[in-house]
Amino acid sequence: MQKMTPRQLREQIEAIDQELRELTPWEKKLITMRKRYLLDDERDVVDIIENGLRSGQGRPAYSDLDAFDDGWPGLRETRETIASLKERRALLVANMPSKSEVEERTRETAALAGKIRARARELAARQQVLRGRLEEVAHLALSIAEDAHRLWEDNASLDRCSAEADIPRPQTPRAETESSDLAAPLSVLLRTCFNGGEPCAIDPVLANTIRCAAGAGERTTTGVRTSVR
């Protein structure tokens, strides 16, 4: 059986206290009623008070006994239930953490909260740096892609002009877009982990792919490859 948390223990204790608040006055009322009807020697009523109404059992039309029609227990069952509840309550209280345990846990949570705040401050600073660098990289990547396409268009135009004039085509650099092993996994990371909401766990394979590609990228030239034709 799984051990209950302090909160679950408190909830169980509170539920028992609620039952006791209902049953304790009922027990006192039954004791008073039993004495009165026993004094009047109404044994059939005393039996109902002690044992409750059994299925199909009739009863005298006394207003004192109306609660039994709603299923309230007799005195014996009420006392047994109260005793069982009190016993269980004592066991639950005994399983509650001690004052020293609560103090120790309070210190632990305070220390952890301090670490979280420090990490959050450091993370916020790095996020600000990342935003600036992403904007810079986005502008750079866009301008490179646009210029590469313009270069391709210009070469195509030169091809047509040379062919139409039937003259030798001057040699010019022809652009080819750079093949980046980092672009695809990085785009996955940005889509999944930088879209707001609860941070998600990073796929270890994705993380390793990015680290490897980023490491290789430090030793290669990025941008647009050119060849003279």
Observed structural traits:
3 domains; rod-shaped; 69% helix; 7 helices; two-stranded antiparallel ribbon
Given as residue ranges, the uncertain stretches (5+ residues, pLDDT < 50) are 218-224
Number of strands: 2
Q: How would you describe the shape?
A: rod-shaped
Instruction: Please bin the fraction of helical residues.
Output: 55-70%
Run of helices and strands: HHHHHEHHE
**Tell me about the biggest sheet?**
2 strands, antiparallel
3D architecture notes:
The structure is a single chain. By secondary structure, the chain is mainly alpha-helical. It folds into 3 domains: 6-96; 99-173; 178-229, no CATH class. It is built from 7 helices and 2 strands; from the N terminus they run H-H-H-H-H-E-H-H-E. The protein has helices at residues 6-39, 43-51, 66-69, 75-94, 99-165, 183-193, 204-217, and strands spanning 173-177, 224-228. It has a two-stranded antiparallel sheet with strand order 1-2. The longest helix has 67 residues, at 99-165. The chain is rod-shaped.
Layout: helices, strands, pairs:
Elements: H1 6-39, H2 43-51, H3 66-69, H4 75-94, H5 99-165, E1 173-177, H6 183-193, H7 204-217, E2 224-228
Antiparallel strand pairs: 1-2
Helix pairs in contact: 1-2, 1-4, 6-7
Short précis:
By secondary structure, the protein is mainly alpha-helical. It is about 70% helix and about 5% strand. The protein has helices at about 5-40, 45-50, 65-70, 75-95, 100-165, 185-195, 205-215, and strands at about 175, 225-229.
